[in-house]
Amino acid sequence: MSHARSEEAFQSAQVLMPGGVNSPARACRSVGAEPVFIASAQGPILTDLDGAEYIDYVGAFGPMILGHGHPGVLAAVEEQLQLGMTYGAPTTGETELAQAIVDATPGIERLRLVNSGTEATMSALRVARGFTGREKVIKMAGCYHGHADFLLVKAGSGALTLGSPDSAGVTAGTAQDTLVAPHNDLAAVESLFSSHPGEIAAVILEPVVGNMGVVPPVDGYLQGLRELTAKHGALLVFDEVMTGFRVDRASAQGRYGVTPDLTCLGKVIGGGLPVGAYGGRGDVMAAVAPEGGVYQAGTNSGNPLSVAAGLATLRVLASEPIHERLEVLGARLQRGLESAIADAGRVGCVQRVGSMITLFFTEGPVRCLDDIPSSAVEQFGVFWRAMREHGVYLPPSQYEAWFISAAHDEEIIDKTVEIARRALAS
Ligand SMILES: *Cc1c(COP(=O)(O)O)cnc(C)c1O
């Protein structure tokens, strides 16, 4: 398949934008490839500029849980479009979306809508600091929480594959308030609390990590963090920007039965348009201006188009057995990949929670960043290129989750496994 048009488009883009992209992972450098440019998407299929079709497991890095072009979501956006794009004044849609989120999410009593996951985590931790009067936060190595300065310390996702987990431009002063523990290691968090008594405002993590590839919490980890934070007067913040409404209708906190003080959302709740949200305990959220002294604002916060797309998406998730279906499809893909690995005599493990799945080229289990050897990253690049060449579009890094949508079906999953068989054998 020729990529001539994509190659030409990439040349022009590289002149104008660093790496030719507006978000680094899209440049495909960590898998040793150049990006294809996408012309359109429908259901589970992406079509590139040269007319090639791909089964999509990127899902726009998480939002597209219903697949591309869901008729209900399109209709909601089209209807809002006729009424105006944005007003800078409140709308009832915002209240409806807030209600839908509160109804589904155990840890959210009140919330704020923002424009991205980055804004959600940045704002949630500002609130945690304002509420507790403390300055330090604990994060886990390999968890990604967007690109706010103080969270770009040992961050996951695209920040990992740049080879510089700590971004240039982040000051030492900012970074010193971020304490880092290895993931899935309760004792490490406990010792940070002991060595910084009364200083830690919050612990933030991805309850199911997607940004080092899919890494579930080990037994008792989330519960242990809940108890530790409560004991030390710190807030527990779940970054569910990826897992929110993805791994369960009640998000990871519902799936694992552990309720955080604050929750960050994004991706799925925008139905494909830009959005984020943070919320939690009523007493904590009362710290936000104009009720309290923690400032946070946004020209496009609660944008009517994003709200319409998000609300339409959440209504489908609330009324149809989508998560049950995704569990079945996820299990089928997992079994298929595991048998393909075994039959090819390769070393690999498949980790999955619901419709988030990663094939790691290591024996596993992968519980933290150090469990992923550099050989896995190299093998993943070879595998990724073969998959794309044969029509399967995976997230372009070993450190990413693949996403299954409700528009995928058994036939598409089986076709994916067949292509993976060939890629693994070669
Ligand atoms: C994607 C993501 C973010 C950042 O969201 P943006 O909308 O890209 O700013 C934060 N946290 C997690 C867990 C994410 O997956």
Question: What do these coordinates show?
Answer:
With 426 residues, the chain is an alpha/beta fold. α2 runs antiparallel to α11 (304-319), α3 runs parallel beside α11 (304-319) and α7 (186-195) runs parallel beside α8. It folds into 2 domains: 4-69 and 321-425, Aspartate Aminotransferase, domain 1 (Alpha-Beta Complex), CATH 3.90.1150; 71-319, Type I PLP-dependent aspartate aminotransferase-like (Major domain) (Aspartate Aminotransferase, domain 2, 3-Layer(aba) Sandwich). The longest helix is centred in the last third of the chain and has 22 residues, at 322-343. It has helices at 4-16, 71-83, 92-104, 117-132, 158-161, 172-175, 186-195, 221-231, 251-256, 282-285, 304-319, 322-343, 374-389, 410-425; strands at 38-42, 45-48, 53-56, 110-114, 136-140, 178-181, 200-205, 235-239, 262-266, 276-280, 349-353, 356-360, 392-393, 402-403. The protein has 14 helices and 14 strands. Helix content is 38%, strand content 15%. The mean pLDDT is 96. Strands 4-10-9-8-7-5-6 form a 7-stranded mixed sheet, sandwiched between helices. β8 (235-239), α9 (251-256) and β9 form a beta-alpha-beta unit. Pyridoxal-5'-phosphate is lined by residues 116-118, 121, 144-146, 206, 210-211, 239, 241-242, 266, 276.
